[in-house]
């Protein structure tokens, strides 16, 4: 399978994952995330400093299946020039990389990963480090 085909399959699976969520599940996810972000913004939280980036990363990864080796503090240190939406993109790209890694490792070729296997996927620190290759800070 070519890299383009793998990328297309991962994008399709990510789309299917979000599409498979009911409107209510999407609302619940947003209702959990948005008040926290709004509250933090009201408190003056920005991505300008390490603590702000750390708290933003905590919110963005709250519902992600993270492996034990993920160090949000280290990621906050590494994202000095990254702002809100780019932090979100780092998290999403790490999740996509975890899916690609699973596809390659298990040589899954069908359009969908079995649900029980999908639930076992963990996003590890290497997935985040890989995400930095494709998500660059705006300078």
Explain this structure to me?
The protein has a single domain, classed as Helicase, Ruva Protein, domain 3 (Orthogonal Bundle), CATH 1.10.8. Helix 1 crosses helix 5 (84-106) and helix 3 (50-61) packs across helix 4 (72-78). Helices cover 68% and strands 0% of the residues. The protein has helices spanning 3-20, 23-42, 50-61, 72-78, 84-106, 115-118, 125-134. The chain has 139 residues and is mainly alpha-helical.
Gross morphology: globular
Largest sheet: none
Per CATH, what is the topology? Helicase, Ruva Protein, domain 3
How many helical elements? 7
CATH architecture annotation name: Orthogonal Bundle
Which class best fits the helix and strand makeup?
mainly alpha
Which properties best describe this structure?
139 residues; mainly alpha; Helicase, Ruva Protein, domain 3; 68% helix; globular
Brief sketch in words of this structure:
By secondary structure, the protein is an all-alpha fold. It has helices spanning 3-20, 23-42, 50-61, 72-78, 84-106, 115-118, 125-134. It is globular.
Produce the secondary structure layout.
Layout: H1 3-20, H2 23-42, H3 50-61, H4 72-78, H5 84-106, H6 115-118, H7 125-134
Helix pairs in contact: 1-5, 2-3, 3-4, 3-5, 5-7
